[in-house]
Amino acid sequence: MRLSLIVPCCNEQENVEPMFARIKEVFENDIPEIIFVDDGSSDGTLSRLKSLYTENPTVRLISFTRNFGKEAAILAGLRAARGDLICIIDGDLQQDPAVALEMSTMLEKDDSLDVVAAYQKSRREGLIHRFCKTCFYKMGKHLCDLDLEPHASDFRVFRRHVAQAILSDPECERFSKGIFAWAGFKTAYIPYDVKERNAGKSKWKTSSLTRYALDGIFSFSEKPLRFPLTLSIICFLASVITLILTIAWDAGAVLEILLPLSLVMFSLIFFTLWVLGRYAALALREAKRRPVYVIREFLDR
Ligand code: UDP
Ligand code: MG
Asked: In Å, how far are 107, 124, 155 from 204, measured between CA atoms?
């Protein structure tokens, strides 16, 4: 079966050539179609990708006008992919193409499987990142009812009909892991060793990762919208208890307790407003239907 590799790249000038070399080494005589998506790199990534395109017939190259994010690059790659099997793989060599080969072989051998995804055996991240991600998956599982594999990323191989299902989701604000889980195809998970980045730095900051994760939850769950109702029930019960205590006990003492309590309630109300704001922003972005990315150049044959 013909395989397409989608490789999103943002400022990976020192990685694209080693990445291509590693793909050649792993796949030997059966080099897959490789769709590099340059996501608005500001270094020499694009010119190096252009050289790879000129020298290698299996390389195709999409370049964006500016940085639109990894999700946009994945979407562009999915739209362009022509393979029977499609793989999303990072361009920094943290995800070994040998694992991509292993995953595609599994799909070739087992007709009942639609997707094979790789999950990290152990995470190469700081304590805070790891803690936040664990909280995110726990929250995601509880709020979204989606079967999100905690240590799996976008690194996966899937069949063409899976790509079509993913593309049929018209959302602009995309959270691929959620979309894959929502689509519900039969998925097998295999462990892999995440490598050190070949060169350069991760593009994710804690703030951008948090925003991405929360928007992922908001776009797949309406449960946080129940929060104001829960809050109103708590407030009502609190007001009844306060009334009883004021009559039966000491009004002054009740007031002393009430002041800090009402400040807590205020913070919860503002939190609720923030949640509603996130939903409104998400709905606005979807309503505008702005394209997810803009292509400056598509080098293809
Ligand atoms: N990437 C991208 N656009 C972005 C951020 C990242 O195309 O805005 C690419 C990046 O070049 C890499 C992959 O997505 O190939 C994963 O990014 P990164 O290594 O920064 O993420 P991490 O491995 O730290 O999760
Ligand atoms: Mg990386």
From this structure: 31, 14, 17
Tokens describing residue 272: 């609720």
Atom 19 (ligand 1) nearest CA: 202
The one-letter amino acid at 229: L
Spatial separation of the C-alpha atoms in residues 254 and 276, rounded to whole Å: 32
Q: Which atom number of ligand 1 is nearest to the Cα of residue 8?
A: 7
Residue 126 CA to ligand 2 centre (angstroms): 14
Confidence at residue 148, expressed as pLDDT on a 0 to 100 scale: 81
- State how far the Cα of 290 lies from the Cα of 223, in Å rounded to an integer: 27
Which whole number is the average pLDDT over 183-200? Answer: 93
Q: What gap in Å lies between CA 233 and CA 58, rounded to an integer? A: 61
Residue 6 CB–ligand 1 contact under 6 Å? no
Residue 112 CB burial class (10 angstroms; 0-12, 13-18, ≥19): exposed
Strand partners, 159: 85
**CA 93 centroid distance within chain:** 18
Residue 92 Cα to ligand 1 middle (Å): 8
Taking the centre of ligand 1 as the mean of its atom positions, its distance from the CA of residue 250, in whole angstroms, is 61
Task: For a ligand 1 pocket test, name from 14, 70, 120, 205 the mutation site with the most ligand atoms within 8 angstroms of its C-beta.
Answer: 70
Query: Which atom of ligand 1 lies at the shortest distance from residue 153's CA?
Result: 25
Question: Regarding predicted confidence, which is higher, 47 or 247?
Answer: 47
Which pair of structure tokens corresponds to residue 21?
A: 């070399």
More confident residue, 123 or 81: 81
pLDDT 10s digits, 280-298: 999 999 999 999 999 999 9
* 242: confidence class by pLDDT, cuts 50, 70, 90: confident
Amino acid at residue number 261: L
Ligand found nearest the CA of 45: 1
133 HSE (CA, 13 A, CB side) = 19
